[in-house]
Design a protein that fits this description.
The complex is a heterodimer of chains A (115) and B (111).
Chain A lengths: L2 E5 L3 E2 L5 E8 L7 E7 L6 E7 L4 E3 L7 E6 L4 E6 L8 E7 L11 E5 L2
Chain B lengths: L8 E4 L5 E6 L11 E6 L6 E4 L13 E6 L2 E6 L8 E8 L6 E3 L3 E5 L1
Parallel strand pairs in B: 1-9
Antiparallel strand pairs in B: 2-6, 3-4, 3-7, 5-6, 7-8, 7-9
The chains are: A mainly beta (115), B mainly beta (111).
Chain lengths: 115, 111
């Protein structure tokens, strides 16, 4: 079965760029939509954006100016970059497969923005 | 785009049925059949329980069912069990620029 695993630094300094990678195993990244979703501590869910395996992307307008999502089909991975981070970007970041509903999800990785 | 409105908490005794509502607008819940529901236990990733309003993924108990009327979607859990205690989130496609909106979340407590 398909499994997703997020990886990347757990601590990022304010004003720097948050970078995460999601590795897909047990299946191909081709033919699917892939999303990044985040959840601030104790709060609800927010989709950051999504990418189609071909490279088409769509971003949440509230984050669009700071977000880049990319895909590497040769490595079965897709990635997230969020620039100029602040404490408000502290959250658990999830990668997931899907466009309008999501399954499966990665286990999530906590990224803290702090100096 | 505002989050979909869910009750903050719902509780019930083992064996009972409970229903969680998810209220949006005609631009999201009421306009499209792309409502989904997620269960999230503490410290865990969300798990898809219902997609496209009323469809259950393989492996999800038939005690979970979804429906929609107008701008409000609902998740019903029948035969409530201790393991159902978790946070539940709805989501919907939206015609706004965000394309997808989540609900505010509901904490289900099994008494």
């Amino acid at each position: 079965q398909v499994q997703l695993q997020e990886s990347g630094p757990g601590l990022v300094k304010p004003s720097e760029t948050l970078s995460l990678t999601c590795t897909v195993s047990g299946g191909s990244i081709s033919g699917h939509y892939w999303s990044w979703i985040r959840q601030p501590p104790g709060k609800g869910l927010e989709r950051i954006g999504y990418i189609y395996y071909s490279g088409y992307t769509n971003y949440n307008p509230s984050l669009q100016s700071r977000v880049t999502i990319s895909v590497d089909t040769s490595k079965n991975q897709f990635s997230l970059k969020l620039s100029s981070v602040t404490a408000a970007d502290t959250a658990v970041y999830y990668c997931a497969r899907g466009l309008n509903w999501f399954v499966p999800w990665g286990q999530g990785t906590l990224v803290t923005v702090s100096s | 785009q505002s989050a979909l409105t869910q009750p903050a908490s719902v509780s019930g005794s083992p064996g009972q049925s409970i229903t969680i509502s998810c209220t949006g607008t005609s631009s999201d819940v009421g306009g499209y059949n792309y409502v989904s529901w997620y269960q999230q236990h503490p410290g865990k990733a969300p798990k898809l329980m219902i997609f496209d309003v009323s469809n259950r993924p393989s492996g999800v108990s038939n005690r979970f069912s979804g429906s929609k009327s107008g701008n409000t979607a609902s998740l019903t859990i029948s035969g409530l069990q201790a393991e159902d205690e978790a946070d539940y989130y709805c989501s919907s496609y939206t015609s706004s620029s965000t394309l997808l909106v989540f609900g505010t979340g509901t904490k289900v407590t099994v008494l």
